[in-house]
Amino acid sequence: MKTHEFKKAVERLKLRVENDERMLVIDEVDTLNWLADVSLDAQYGMRMYFGMAEEIGEEKTHELAKLVIEYATTPIAERE
């Protein structure tokens, strides 16, 4: 994993969520997934959740962002 790029992507994701920039959040999730080598199914699921951010509300969007960051920062061997 490209650690420096990954850390920058995490910071951008946090900023996008704070600023409620939904489409940019999706882009950052895609970047994190690529950098962290997340499976395509998981990437699609995360993209769908963030795409529905308007329907699920701000609090849920923040929770999802935290989960994505937590998942993406967990070494692949330790993921469930």
Automatic annotation (TrEMBL):
This is Uncharacterized protein. It comes from Listeria booriae.
